[in-house]
Amino acid sequence: MGDVIKTASLTKFYGKTRGVEGLTMRVPAGAVYGFLGPNGAGKTTTIRCLLGMLKPTSGTAEVLGERVSLDGTGLRRRIGYVAGEVRLYDKETGRWHLDYVAGFRGGRGRLAEDLIERFVFDPSKRVKELSKGNKQKLALILGMAHDPELLILDEPTSGLDPLNQETVYRLLDERVAAGRTVFLSSHVLSEVERVCDRVGIIRAGRLVAEESVQALLGKRLREIEVRFGQPTEAELLAGLPGVDNVTVVGGDVLKARVKGDAVDAVLKRLATRHVVDLQMQRASLEDVFLEHYREDRVARELDPMGEEGR
């Protein structure tokens, strides 16, 4: 199989309110695809369209080789979904939920007992007796028990402690190694950096960046700190394209943020001085993510009658 998820100009409006607009993306089989964006960016709308829970205003979505539709019961059996807001029956036990969901799937799922053990989850307790973390464990067990071809996870580690978060990451690694695909929506950017192969950043309903995690980090931002053998000044780097946040500390330590291909020019400029020490750190995915939004705000300030102002 080539692409497990494929959308073309996917658009959903709620009346005059934009949910997602012109979304075109592809998620290849066997990948962990991170879907990033702030609240209101269109992540949940996209997921609901992919699951056939919402009918798009226009455009198309294909999942596991099938055109998504509102009556796609057979397709949904091949998908595991963990919602961002877990909704369970308070008076029922975890075991009841497993049996209930199994009735729709034609079986409890071969991974159910293994997941219960690995999450150290007690299925005999009623939902109203469970902590937030244990409710999240139950949601993950329900979503993964049938070993679906595609996992769609919305904030999957919400409420989990670090140990159980790591359990989730190991499970995702194992499922991908077994040929499954993961579509992961998350605000936890360190999580996306930890598990994802590829990311898409959605802003105001539109996909603004899509590439591998490493490529996105590698070409976007680096933080440098240079100690010289003599006093220096910020002007040494301040005029270079792609360099900003230039400061001098203690007279001989220069700090700056370097974007994209500007690294080569920076190193050549530094080589004109006596460098005692040089540290260069790749920016986190969070820094990259925030940079996309900073650039967008600047663009809107420069063009107040731009896309969102029209």
Strand tally? 14
Count of individual domains: 2
Distance between the terminal alpha carbons, to the nearest Å?
A: 42 Å
Radius of gyration: 23 Å
Please summarize the sheet with the most strands: 6 strands, mixed
User: Per DSSP, what share of the residues sits in E-state strands of 2 or more residues?
Assistant: 25-35%
User: Count of helical segments?
Assistant: 11
Task: Tell me what you see in this structure.
There is one protein chain. By secondary structure, this protein is α/β, with parallel strands linked by helices. It folds into two domains: about 5-205, Rossmann fold, CATH 3.40.50; about 220-285, 2-Layer Sandwich (Alpha-Beta Plaits), CATH 3.30.70.1560. Helices cover about 35% and strands about 30% of the residues. It is built from eleven helices and 14 strands. It has helices at about 45-50, 75, 95-105, 110-120, 130-145, 160-175, 190-195, 215-220, 235-240, 260-270, 285-300; strands at about 5-15, 15-30, 30-35, 60-65, 65, 80, 150-155, 180-185, 200-205, 205-210, 220-230, 245-250, 255-260, 275-280. It has a six-stranded mixed sheet with strand order 6-7-8-3-9-10, with helices on both faces. The radius of gyration is 23 Å and the shape is elongated. The model is unreliable at about 305-310 (pLDDT under 50).
